[in-house]
Amino acid sequence: MKETEQVSEQNLKKEELEKLTLIEAALYVAGRPLDLKTLSSVLKTRSKRKVRRLARILAEEYAKRVTALEILELEDGRFVMQLKAEYTPKVRRIATRPLVPAGPLRTLSYIAYRQPITQKQVVEVRGSHAYKHIKQLEDLGLISKEKAGKNTILRTTTFFADYFGLSHDLKTMKKQLKTLFETLSSQSSMKVGGGER
Q1: CATH number listed for the domain at residues 2-93
Q2: What are the residue ranges spanned by the domains of the chain?
Q3: Best exposed site among 17, 72, 150, 166 by fewest CB in 10 Å?
Q4: How many Å apart are CA 77 and CA 39, to the nearest integer?
Q5: CATH class of the structural domain 111-197
Q6: In order along the chain (197 residues), what is the average pLDDT of each group of 10 residues?
Q7: How many Cβ atoms from other residues are within 10 Å of residue 169's Cβ?
Q8: Roughly how many angstroms between the first and final C-alpha of the chain, as a whole number?
Q9: Judging by DSSP bridges, how do beta strands 79-83 and 143-148 pair with one another?
């Protein structure tokens, strides 16, 4: 009887380890936050509670390790594998080319912060090159266009929120963006002002 219990306990541990490894692989490959529904589909289970428990175990395991990576649970319940903040400045220069070049990124930032916004308003502020940016951003799946009478309304997509690690809730996302813009602005003013103080 005891031998049977040991075998089933070992099988359970093996099965759980395989699931933890699958979650780790999914987070690594995605390179963006994943929700419980997506992680559930990877594990082929319907139990989001079970997936959340396993993802939290994995996050705890990463917290115990001496590694440059971390797994975090975001406010909205998604999980992300990312580089710890202290390592980013040291390896930024060798990072692969960004998904979005600087010009389209500025247009995307404007759309994200002002959304929902008309295409006409974006072009008035960003210039006629914004048409090209909007097309690029739509092709990348970062924004969506919707006709409303004569106007075209622009919004960011869930992929945008996932890629940049932002909330799906528009109000929360705008707060996150405001904080990010303020941080970037203060960092660039420190550089212009003659270094850090």
Answers
A1: 1.10.10.10
A2: 2-93, 111-197
A3: 150
A4: 12
A5: mainly alpha
A6: 51 82 91 88 92 94 91 86 80 68 89 93 93 90 90 90 81 86 69 47
A7: 13
A8: 69
A9: unpaired
